Amino acid sequence: MAELWVLVADASQAILYARKGHKILEQVGETLEPDATPIDKEMAKPGRMREAAPVSGHVYGHKTDLKEHEKRMFARDIAQMLKQCCHQFDQLIVIAAPLILGELRKNLDAHVQDKVEREIDKDMTKIRPEQVADFLFTMPAG
């Protein structure tokens, strides 16, 4: 039987499961997006930038959204992790919050993309593995 992995991700957490048996998912990995440092949080205020010297910050024209940047970087990290371990699975199901799913699509290596069986734009990081398995592998009777 081909090794099937399931990635469940949102903007701050990525959990990897391997399918073991008919409807059983076993966690094989997890990564969390690191919190921003206090300086990063200060810079996250729109239109603010800190000077290296002890001078007060000033307003600049281009607004940056640090949280959006962090989400993109986290998606890139997830894609890199999948690339490094893609020899361990034959198929991959990606379940991710819409923004992260979009960023993952942009960053997945071609070898990983070839193994993606299905993509689901849904945040399922807060539910138990059994519920994820039920969602994926239970077919309605009919």
What can you tell me about this protein's structure?
This protein is of the alpha/beta class and 142 residues long. Mean pLDDT is 80; it is low at 36-58. It has a single domain, classed as Nucleotidyltransferase, domain 5, CATH 3.30.420. The chain is 36% helix and 26% strand. The chain has helices at 38-43, 66-85, 98-107, 110-115, 129-137, and strands at residues 4-9, 13-19, 25-32, 48-49, 58-59, 91-96, 116-121. The protein contains 5 helices and 7 strands.
Write the layout of secondary structure elements.
Elements: E1 4-9, E2 13-19, E3 25-32, H1 38-43, E4 48-49, E5 58-59, H2 66-85, E6 91-96, H3 98-107, H4 110-115, E7 116-121, H5 129-137
Helix pairs in contact: 2-3
CATH superfamily, please?
Answer: eRF1 domain 2
Structural class: alpha/beta
Question: Total number of helical segments?
Answer: 5
Q: Fill in the CATH topology.
A: Nucleotidyltransferase, domain 5
Q: Kindly give the count of domains.
A: 1
Under the CATH scheme, which architecture would be assigned?
A: 2-Layer Sandwich
Binned, the helix content reads: 25-40%
The low-confidence runs, each spanning 5 or more residues with pLDDT under 50, are 36-58
- Note the gap between the termini: 26 Å
Shape by Cα distribution: globular
Percentage of residues in DSSP E strands? 25-35%
Can you give the mean pLDDT?
A: 80
- What is the spatial order of strands in the main beta sheet? 3-2-1-6-7
The count of DSSP E runs of length 2 or more, i.e. the number of strands, is: 7
| Largest sheet composition | 5 strands, mixed
Pattern of helices and strands: EEEHEEHEHHEH
